[in-house]
Amino acid sequence: MKISTDTAKKPTLDKDLDKIVRIEEAAGFVSRGFAGPGLALLFLAAAAIFAALYIGAGQSGLFIVIAAVLGGYMALNIGANDVANNVGPAVGSRALTMVGALLIAAVFESAGALIAGGDVVGTISKGIIDPASVASPDTFIWAMMSALIASALWVNLATIIGAPVSTTHSVVGGVMGAGIAAAGFGAVNWPMMGTIAASWVISPVLGGVIGAMFLAFIKVMIIYRDDKIAAARRWVPVLLAIMAAAFAGYLAMKGLKKVVSLSGWQILAIGAVAGLATYFGTKPLIFRQSEGMENRNQSLRTLFHIPLICSAALLSFAHGANDVANAVGPLAAIVHTAEAGEVLAKVSIPFWVMLIGAAGISIGLVLFGPRLIRMVGEQITRLNPMRAYCVALSAAITVIIASWLGLPVSSTHIAVGAVFGVGFFREWFTSRSSHRREYLARKYERGRKENNQAEAGEQPRRNGMAPEESRRRVLVRRAHFTTIVAAWVITVPAAALLSAATFLVLNTLF
C-alpha cells in the first residue's frame, strides 16, 4: 500500500507544532513573573509624570519628582504587605475568594485614604525626631528620602520572605536612623521609642488573647452543644452585635477623624446604637437562615460569611485612612520643605500626594498582595469562618482598647497575633478542654450506636485520632511563627541602620 507524502510528513509536523506550543507556554509562564514588576515600574513612571505636572522646573522640582517615585514605591510595598492582615482571614476561611478580596480591599483602601485620610501628618513620624535638630532644609530632604528608601526596601524584603511586618514601625525606624545620621543620637525622642518597642509585645499579645477569648466562647456556647442550631440562634446575633459595635467605634475613632471629630462618649454611643440595631436586625435573619440546617459545624460556618466580608471591607477602609500616611507623610514633608525652604513638624498633605499613596497601595495589593494574604489566611494556622471572625473582631477591639489606654500598637501585629492566638488556643483546647472531651464522648457514643462500627472499649476519637494523639497535634506552624516574630523584632533597628547608611551615601554624593 502506498502512503501519501502528506500522511508521511504529518507526524513530523505534529512534533514541530508541539514544540512550538511548549515554547509558547514556557515563555508565557516565564513572562508572568515579570508582569508584576513591569506594571509596578509603569506606576512609578506615572507617579513621576503626575508629580512633574504639579511642580515647576528647577532643582526643588526634581527633588519632589524623585520623592514622588519613592513615595509610590513605599505605597506599593504597603499594599503588598500590610493589607493582607485585613482580608487574609476572610480568604483563608473561604468566605471570600482571592479575586473578591483583592477587589474589596483595593476599593475600600482607596476610599479610606482619599475620604478619611489624615490631612495633617507629623513629618517626623509620631514625634521620633525633633525638627529643630535638623534645621537645614537640604539635610532634612535627604533624611526623609533616606527614610522612604530604607523603609520601603525593608518592607519589600519582608514581603519576599513572607513576613507580615508593621509598615509604621518601618517608617519609624527609617526616620530614626536618618535623624541619627543627620543630627546625632540627641535628636531622637527615646521615651517615645521605648513605648513603640513595648508595642511589639503589647500588640500581638493583646490581639491573641482577645481572639482566643472569643473563640473559647464560640466553642463552649455553640460548637460543643448538642443542639448547635438553637445555640447559634441565641448567640450569633449577640456576636454580630458586638462586631458591629466594635467596628462602628473603630471607624469613628480611627477611620473618620478627618471627616468629623468625636469625643469618647460620642464614639461609645455610636457603637452602642450600631450594636443594638445589628442585634435586633440580625436575630430574625439568623433564625430564617438557620431553618433546615443540619446540626453540624459545617452548617454554622455559613452564618459568619457575610460578617466576614463586611469586616474585611471596614478594616481596609480604616487601614487606608490611617496607614496611607506611612507612604505619603515623608513625601509631604519633602514637598513642603522643597517648596517653602523651611522645616516644620506638621504639614498639610496635598491631594495629588494622597492620590499617589492611595493608588500605590491598591496597585501593590493587586500585583503582590496574594502571597501575604495566603500566608496570613492559610499557612500560619487553619482558619474557618468562626475563627476568622474572632481574628477580625480582635483587630477592631484591640485598637479601640489601646487607643483609650494611649498605647501605640500596630494593626499588623494585632491581626497576626490574633491568628497565632486562635491557633495556639485550639492546640490547648484540643488537648485539655473538658467541654470538648464530653462532647466527643457523646458524639462517639451516638456514632457507635448508629454505625455499629466501633469496638467495645475503644476511646472517643475525632478525625481518626484518640485523645492522646490529639494532645500532640500542632495547629500552628512553628517555622512561620519564628520567622514572623524575628522580623517584627528587627524591623526598627534594620530600617534604622539601612536608613542611616542611605543618608550617609546620599549626603556624601550630593
Folded structure, characterized:
This protein is mainly alpha-helical and 510 residues long. It has one domain (40-432, 474-509). Helix content is 78%, strand content 1%. The chain contains 17 helices and 2 strands. A two-stranded antiparallel ribbon has the order 1-2. Helix 2 (59-81) runs parallel beside helix 5 and helix 5 packs antiparallel against helix 17. The chain is globular and about 80 Å long. It starts with a helix and ends with a helix. The relative contact order is 0.18. Residues 1-9, 122-126 and 453-472 have low confidence and may be disordered.
List keywords for this structure.
globular; mainly alpha; 510 residues
Topology (SSEs and partners):
Elements: H1 5-54, H2 59-81, H3 84-92, H4 98-116, E1 120-122, H5 137-161, H6 167-183, H7 190-223, H8 228-255, H9 264-290, H10 297-301, H11 305-340, E2 346-348, H12 351-379, H13 385-405, H14 411-432, H15 434-451, H16 467-471, H17 478-509
Antiparallel strand pairs: 1-2
Helix pairs in contact: 1-2, 1-12, 2-5, 2-11, 2-12, 3-4, 3-11, 3-12, 3-13, 4-11, 4-12, 5-6, 5-11, 5-17, 6-17, 7-8, 7-13, 7-14, 8-9, 8-11, 8-13, 11-12, 11-13, 13-14
Region (Disordered): 450-469
GO molecular function: phosphate transmembrane transporter activity
Membrane topology: Multi-pass membrane protein
Strand content: under 5%
Distance between the termini: 84 Å
Helix-strand string: HHHHEHHHHHHHEHHHHHH
Give, in spatial order, the strands making up the sheet with the most strands.
1-2
Would you identify the regions where 5 or more consecutive residues have pLDDT less than 50? 1-9, 122-126, 453-472
